[in-house]
Amino acid sequence: MDSSRNPKSEAWLRYAHELGLGPFHLDRPPRSASEPETAAQRSSPPVSFDLQGPATSSSSVLASSILGGRSLPGGQVGFSSDHASPRSSGVFTTEGISQRVSPNPLPPSLFEERIENDSLERIRTDIGPSCNRCKLHKARTNIVFGVGNPKAELVFVGEGPGHDEDVQAEPFVGRAGKLLTQMIEAMGLRRPDVYICNVVKCRPPENRLPEKDEITTCSPYLVRQLDVIKPKVICCLGACSAQTLLNTTQGISRYRGAWFDYRGAKLIATYHPAYLLRNPAAKGEVWKDLQKIMALLGLQPLKKK
What is the pLDDT of residues 187-230, one digit of tens each? Predict the structure, then answer.
């Protein structure tokens, strides 16, 4: 590369090299003996962040591809709603420490920008009553769009409908749904006060996890739902929804209970109610996560009679 012809590219490559994103070959003149060597030139360790530390309601984590995840349409995270592109560079902040996050080189998605005059009804219409965009349509009974307050301050996002949800066309109405209702009421709210939806809108066979291609196809509609509702808090129930919105493949134990910024909302991940049915001992950890949400929204717990 001729640095005299393209100084901007030269500067960008130097910056990436100093972040440890290289190695890159830079065709540049040798540094003269009188030119001082900077600390960054002497040592350029890779940028890494630990998400396992204790989280507080004041900690803010800006997530990006640094989490090591897959790329999903519209699922980029860690940037507020006033950013034109969620894949532009951002600042990762936790425990008072800031580091520059490198730009994501992936091409822009059609679903990154908010759709003008979008609405939940328009999204439902766009999906259609007989969607066949992915293979999940082959065995489903109903499309399970979402339910609740269209202006809710709190949105719960699960992975996908189960048998009862597929029959009733409403998310979280089975055993796990009843537990979620109890969780909501313990926070001093009712189901109609919040909004509940899933990453995919059709039931995966045998209640398996949604597969990557199914998530890629359906998750843009979830992103649109969240953009329309504009909640203050998004609570991801389980690893699937958290991985989708945080654009990562890491297990939920790495970031459960931590706060993230997501397109103008605060996002927190906790265990899925179905997991709690199998592992009741984890309810205490989930309650701690719900208390963080309550503190942020100024909610008071339900008083026992």
Answer: 999 999 999 999 999 999 999 999 999 999 999 999 999 999 99
- DSSP-derived pairing of the beta strands 260-262 and 265-270: antiparallel
Cα separation, 226 vs 265, whole angstroms? 9
87-96 per-position pLDDT tens digit? 322 333 333 3
Cβ proximity of 300 and 157 under 8 Å: no
Distance of CA 36 to the CA centre of its chain: 43
Give CA–CA dist 153/294, Å, rounded.
Answer: 11
Three state DSSP letters for the chain: CCCCCCHHHHHHHHHHHHCCCCCCCCCCCCCCCCCCCCHHHHCCCCCCCCCCCCCCCCCCECCCHHHCCCCCCCCCCCCCCCCCCCCCCCEEEECCEEEECCCCCCCCCCCCCCCCCCCHHHHHHHHCCCCCCCHHHHCCCCCCCCEECCCCCEEEEECCCCHHHHHHCCCCCCHHHHHHHHHHHHCCCCHHHCEEEECCCCCCHHHCCCCHHHHHHHHHHHHHHHHHHCCCEEEEECHHHHHHHHCCCCCHHHCCCCCEEECCEEEEEECCHHHHHHCHHHHHHHHHHHHHHHHHHCCCCCCCC
Q: Which of 223, 217, 212, 19 is nearest to 115 (CA)?
A: 223
Where in the sequence of the chain do the CATH 3.40.470.10 domains occur?
120-297
Q: Which CATH class is domain 120-297?
A: alpha beta
Which amino acid is present at 101? V
Could you tell me the pTM of the whole model?
A: 0.67
